[in-house]
Structures are given as structure tokens and as C-alpha cells.
TrEMBL record:
GO terms assigned for molecular function: serine C-palmitoyltransferase activity
Protein's name in the database: Serine palmitoyltransferase small subunit A
One of the GO BP terms on file: ceramide biosynthetic process
GO cellular component: endoplasmic reticulum membrane; serine palmitoyltransferase complex
Length: 77
């Protein structure tokens, strides 16, 4: 029973450490982008736009990049 209890505490500790790490990453994001100076609604607007732009770029890379690479490989060979 004692081993199960300590394993549960270790798991709780790992989960807590994970959330502290996520919080630390969020604070680094705020500091590196200077978003800590903005009001919450401005932060939300900026983050939403950033996520939208990044997701569009990633989607475009997955959709169009293979075709461009294939065309480039045909041009080279």
C-alpha cells in the first residue's frame, strides 16, 4: 500500500512539474514578445493572429511544398 501511495505522489509531482514548465514557457513567450505590457484583450488578439498566421504557413507548407520539391527534383535530374 505504501508503494502505491508514493507512486501516486510521484505522479502528482510529475504532473505539477509539467504544469510549472508550461507556465514557465508561457512566461518566456510573454517576455520575449513583450506581451506582458499589453492588456489581456490585446494579448489575446495578438496570440490569435500569431496562431492563425503560423497555422496557415504550416498548412501551406504541407499542401504545396511536396509539389514544389518534386518539380525541383525533376528540374535537377
Amino acid at each position: 500500500i505504501l508503494d502505491t501511495y508514493t507512486t501516486g505522489l510521484e505522479m502528482f509531482s510529475n504532473i505539477r512539474r509539467f504544469f510549472k514548465f508550461i507556465h514557465w514557457l508561457y512566461l518566456q513567450y510573454l517576455l520575449n514578445t513583450a506581451l506582458y505590457m499589453l492588456e489581456p484583450w490585446e494579448r489575446l488578439l495578438f496570440s490569435t493572429l500569431l496562431i492563425g498566421i503560423l497555422s496557415t504557413a504550416i498548412y501551406s507548407a504541407f499542401v504545396f511544398l511536396p509539389h514544389h520539391v518534386r518539380s525541383l527534383m525533376q528540374l535537377i535530374s
